[in-house]
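hiii, so i know i said id send this last week but things got crazy w the move. better late than never?? heres the sequnce for the chain we talked about at the cafe, plus the structure i predicted for it. fair warning i was half asleep when i ran it
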Amino acid sequence: MLPLLTPVGALLLFAAANAQSPSPAAGADIRAIDAIYETGFLVRAVSRQDPALIVTVGGGGARISDAQWKALAGSRDQIVELDVRRSHIADADLAKLGQLSRLKRLHLESNDISDAGILALAAFKGIEYLNLYGNSRVSDGSVDRLAAMNSLKRIYLAATGITPEGLKRLRAARVDLVINGDAAPRAHE
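okay and structure toks below
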């Protein structure tokens, strides 16, 4: 795992990565990356060979500000993983996340997402990993929408409003989907 980057470190890493091999994120906008960092997010490249971005709020706890949303939008084609746990994300905020065209991994733990928000998330075409832990307003009403997210490979639904029956239904609809870290149905579900 690479260390977290400062703006200068990000500049050096992206210059080196872009010189070594072209990628969809080649020619990364260093100003946009610095803007993400300067608004309080932690940001790093996937690897030296892949300058796509992993962005996290760190510990979370504070609401995402307009400046932070703007900084994320400035790198919408570079962010592949976003961790906004405990950031007071509500259903209305999910449209902003939908602008991140390369997003594959999304951490939404302990926010205020409901079944209405799952409708917005279902429109995200490339999501492979989704963590909804602690979003108690996500219920069995979202099971069919979650099952229809064909790119989804792993989902965490513990501490949501989805019942054991809802989990059984999801497992039956998507036998390929890893749910709550367990690829096989649990005996108590």
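btw The chain has two domains: 1-88, 89-189. thought thatd interest u
miss u guys!!
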